[in-house]
Sequence to fold (230 residues):
Amino acid sequence: MEKFNFNEINKGFYSIEQGAVRSFMFIDNQNILLVDTGLGGNHLLKQVRDISNLPIKVIYTHADRDHIGDAADFEQCFMHPAEFDYYYSKATVPTPMNAVWEGDVFQIGDYCFEVILIPGHTPGSIGLLDRKHRMMIGGDSLQPGPIYMFGPGRNFYAYRASMIKMQGLLKDIDWIYSSHHQLKVPSSIVNQLLVGAEKMLAGKVNGEPEPRFGGKVKCYRTDGVAFFAE
Ligand SMILES: [Zn+2]
Fold:
């Protein structure tokens, strides 16, 4: 079993570093809130139980395989319903998901997260916004990338619309915590992602072949961000 690194970022706020992907954990006197469960196969539940026996809620940023591992180990899981079709089409041990909706609030310790729907990477991708700490957990959608934008459900028009929505929230956000690459990036990345998405839609970015995916997938780099797309 690979032991993950639980990295304490702030009191009661941890990143769970799992190599290629990370999850987040918040803990107070009564509850544990996990954001994503990673690739699975390394008994994340047991690793969390080594720290605390408090009740656990899991919120999923989206249903990509590297975020939903071991979901069936957890009793209280939440995901946006726009993600259910994708989740149940491939989950090997499907677990009954509870719904999160735009604007739902999850309070844990000093943190108060609002659910923000940001489709594009997947139809039900969400971010978790904490205005008091001026931070957001963005899953895969709000990071320099490369962001996976090929295959079923990926949509640059929706992604562009989400980045415009995000621009309206930037007055309340300094840092975005990501599932991949750097732990956190300045919220101004949203502006770069919007420009990048618009250039992608306009066909203005040249892609480099990305052999590991085979076929037509290329890596498109522009304005300090990158996308894998066909
Ligand atoms: Zn991911």
Observations:
- The CA atoms of residues 62 and 125 lie 5 Å apart.
